[in-house]
Amino acid sequence: MAARFNPPPGWQVPTGFRPEQGWAPDPSWPPAPPGWEYWVEDAPTTAQPAVAATATATPQRTRSVARTAAAIPLPDGPLGRPPAPPTTSAPTTSAPSSASSSAAPGTRRPSRAQPGRGLIATVALSCLALGVIIGVVASVARASDAAQALTDARSAQAQVAQDRKDLDAERASLAKEKEAVAQREADVTAREQAATQKEAEQTARQQELDTRAARQSTPSPTPGASNPTTDGLTGLQTCGQLRRSGVSTPIAEGDPGYSRALDRDNNGMACE
């Protein structure tokens, strides 16, 4: 009979695997249960006598390890070749197999862990991570949109404030221009008034000149003619004499004491 390697539950080894000298299991594999039998004897494929069947009830001496990271022990006897597949032509092979299984009830190979559970857990974790990533991306996108909207609103407010400043500046400029126009109108009005006053003065001066010219063109009285307006003041020939005599000056034409000789500018007033 050949010794067969009996892997603990959860060890991913192929069927018929036989470890070599110094081989150690993967540290990620679960540890073997306490007292686990790593090597078991396979039943022979040919019919054996009843005595041999009872003799195989005693298991061969095997070794066990407490940690999975240690090397797997090998049996003391020869390993032999791997067991051949069972044949249907020998019906007597069931007796040794049943005897072997009844002789070593603790050496039954346990069922291996189903690999689908780890895959399902991995897929679930991946879906959860994907959902978290999608949520974070959506939150960042919404935050970015809100920040952009806030920036646009601030830009619009700044533009409105700038437009208001421009309008205020234009209004101030128009007000200054209106003040300048009003000042110019006042200056023009003052100039017009000054021109009107000068024109009136020139008109009055022209009238005075015309009056003087008309008086100068009047013929003077003949020598020896009496002055009918002297009234006894004929002997007074100077303005000083007239003043000393009590005549108030200037003397208008037609008043007592008036004389054309004393009216030097011929304006009708003597002793001015």
UniProtKB/TrEMBL annotation:
Ranges of Polar residues composition bias in the record: 214-240
Region (Disordered): 1-116, 173-272
Pfam families: Excalibur
Domain of life: Bacteria
Transmembrane segments: 118-141
Record domain Excalibur calcium-binding: where: 235-272
Keyword vocabulary terms for this entry: Membrane, Transmembrane, Transmembrane helix
Compositional bias (Basic and acidic residues): 173-190, 198-213
InterPro entries hit by this protein: Excalibur_Ca-bd_domain (IPR008613)
Keyword Transmembrane helix: yes
Biased composition, class Pro residues, residue ranges: 1-11
Biased composition (Low complexity): 43-63, 89-108
Protein name: Excalibur calcium-binding domain-containing protein
Organism: Xylanimonas ulmi
Taxon lineage: Bacteria, Bacillati, Actinomycetota, Actinomycetes, Micrococcales
